[in-house]
Amino acid sequence: MRNGIVLITFIIIAACTEKSDHKSSDNIKPTQNFYCFINRIVEKNSGYYLNVDFIEVLTGDSAVEAAKKIGQAEFEVSETGDTNWFVPNDYFILNTEIDSSLVQVDKDCQIVIYASDETTNYQITEKRNLSPESLRSHIERNKIFEIQVSESKVIVIREFWTP
Questions:
Q1: Closest C-alpha among 55, 32, 67, 40 to residue 160
Q2: What's the DSSP call for residue 1?
Q3: Which residues, at least 6 apart from 15, have a Cβ–Cβ distance to it below 8 Å?
Q4: In degrees, to the nearest 5, what angle opens at C-alpha 146 toward C-alphas 142 and 151?
């Protein structure tokens, strides 16, 4: 009898926990970060969309290994005859699929880019709260951006600073 009461209590607690976990996970939409090239910004249906090409930005050993696999790693041979493999600037862009996607920009999207003041030793200035329209002038071929997507809309666009 005592074991039966303990078992019933355990089942009730497990059922309550399962329901509360299930309910909270239904309400939470995950936010995901992606690296991409922005090909262009499209204005459509009173909103903005990014035409992007998703990429991977690799660093460290994974960058070197990926670059070696496709013949884009560089190397030096030391005086002792050892081969040292590396990738320039310590990062490598892996773009396995050249398919562009159209992603909607949220009306409250935060946009951050970095500008270099060429007159004062190239000091970097962070520019925030740009509009999608003003971002167009910063789109260049092979410029990397990190976008944050929530509920299928871009909520943050941040330039990936590369010297």
A1: 55
A2: -
A3: none
A4: 130
pLDDT, tens only, 76-97? 999 999 999 999 988 999 887 7
149 DSSP β-pair partners: 32, 154
* Cβ neighbours of 48 (radius 10 Å): 21
Query: Which residue from 56, 20, 19, 17 is spatially nearest to 35, judged by alpha carbons?
Result: 56
With beta carbons less than 8 A apart as the criterion, state whether 113 and 136 touch: no
Residue 116: name the closest of 73, 81, 162, 82 by CA. 162
Burial of 38 (0-12, 13-18, 19+ CB in 10 A): buried
Q: What is the pTM of this model?
A: 0.71
